[in-house]
Amino acid sequence: MSLAAFSAAVEAAVLVGVGSAATFAPRTTHAIFNKCVFSGTLTPLGTHDFYFRLFGAFGMAYTGLWYAVAAYNDYTAFFKVSVWTRCLALPLFNVSLVAAGLTSTAWLEFAIPFDLLAGLHMHSCLQRDAATKRG
To answer: Domain residue spans in the chain?
Structure first.
């Protein structure tokens, strides 16, 4: 198993685990997320937690399953695309959510560092795998 595949497998476990928690225990998961931010609080769930559950099920758990399949098959093309999506597309998406007023700026403290670090770590793993193949 390549380093990139191992990294994707770990990421898959995290995404499926946290996504499942957000789907089946949204209030507890939201409270934990709220503890991870420092500048304020996340947008409250209110009486309806449907969108948070949807985020957990599809935004995290379903994505985690794709990471697991890619890790199992050592699908390098997926790993390369994940670097761009984690480092560019997801941070821009999160900033747009805040700009549209759909969530608080505190969400950026949690989402952007996680996405950037995961993307940069995958990039590092891909580089080390390529160096190993060269010699």
So the answer is: 3-134
